[in-house]
Amino acid sequence: xxxxxxxxxxxxxxxxxxxxxxxxxxxxxxxxxxxxxxxxxxxxxxxxxxxxxxxxxxxxxxxxxxxxxxxxxxxxxxxxxxxxxxxxxxxxxxxxxxxxxxx
Amino acid sequence: xxxxxxxxxxxxxxxxxxxxxxxxxxxxxxxxxxxxxxxxxxxxxxxxxxxxxxxxxxxxxxxxxxxxxxxxxxxxxxxxxxxxxxxxxxxxxxxxxxxxxxxxxxxxxxxxxxxxxxxxxxxxxxxxxxxxxxxxxxxxxxxxxxxxxxxxxxxxxxxxxxxxxxxxxxxxxxxxxx
Lengths: 103, 178
Known about the structure:
The complex is a heterodimer. Chain A has helices spanning 27-36, 43-58, 64-68, 75-81, 86-93; strands at residues 2-6, 9-13. By secondary structure, chain A is mostly helical.
């Protein structure tokens, strides 16, 4: 486990940079992480991140398909919001573990 | 106790050279079979590539074409005869009885639903939405008398084997044949 200082606060992350404690997450932290992917977070991005965090709290298994059915974005918009691996990147920015999903 | 130990050759000392050069950037998945499990293998790999941020192209040929026809895409079957891994205790004679294959396919689809696996047409839509491209083989389409209008809307075109290889152009591409 490593500690990373993001947006002025120290957070615990794993080797791949995913937060190990989702309660350490803040929107500012997400913005700073997103900058590394050249993504500027909009309200739509945050809707997705908050949805992911809520689902994670419920203990749901996350998948691209579930996000497509979330009513927030369709799959095409999801890929457009987080280019280069939408579920992986959005999970990282949401402060939740890397999803272990094949679909 | 002052001898300097020689540094052991560890993983850290092996600095990767041109680490980007060997990176996977694109996959071309060729699906030549029409069995439920083979088609899903192709779809999962293509979709999985997109999820990882890779490019993905799909080429359906021969019986694989079934998976992208409007008529049969969601009605694929799994083989119960000539498939030793499927219920090994099942005698071939029984597995070949009328209706048995339909029943086995139904059970398989039920298990897939539990895993939140989409049906073939939805899976194809997901791949298309993720930027993947889907093509049909011209020779096989001619052989089975299939036209563009018989195929799912997401199918970008009916192309030759040469066009297929052109899809695989570029550094860091792998071709997967099923």
